[in-house]
Amino acid sequence: MQDFVRNEHIILGVDPGTLFMGYALLKTVGQQVEILEFGAYDVHKLEGQYPRLQKEFFFLQELIDKYHPTCLAIETQFVDKNPQTMIKIVHAQGVAIAAALSKDVPIYEYSPMKIKMAITGNGHSTKQQVAGMLQHFLHIPDEQMPKKLDATDALGIAYCHYLQLGMPVSEGGAKDWTTYAKRKGLTDKGLTGPNAQLMAALASAKKKK
Known about the structure:
The structure is a single chain. The chain has a 5-stranded mixed β-sheet, sandwiched between helices. Strand 1 and strand 2 form a beta hairpin. The protein is built from 8 helices and 5 strands, in the order H-E-E-E-H-E-H-E-H-H-H-H-H. It has one domain: Nucleotidyltransferase, domain 5. It is an alpha/beta fold. The termini are far apart.
């Protein structure tokens, strides 16, 4: 724990994709978390799968050279009913991993359910609910929230890794939506969109217990 407090971490989060690749870079020093950059890298206009993968590979190498991340956090265990889609996503995962390996960056893999559970307390949350919680935790203004959920997915992956390091988030030590809502006294009243949906789900689950 003391080593973590002293050390600075720069986490590169990647959400592999064949048309848009989500990426995010978080700088953490103890309990302080700063977003260095995040977005969705667009390769959908390129013809063919391999040129797109090559473009993503070089882009990630450039990010690594620019920010010198201490690790790569990546989503894995992707499952889709379409085998061809699964194969393409696995290729994209491999490209991201290869880019990190080429720069000697340590790699950590997290399943989609693990990421959602770490951030919202619900392993079956929607992408919108994850984005809403990240906006709360990281104090992202509405105008800076990206339109592409690939970007917030990558941010969630990076933030999930931050939580695995064993440090509390800045919002009073809340590590997920349930704890955050309890400490803030939040209810579904006055909330709209994904946050209202998540609060309603939490309330429903509490009644069933």
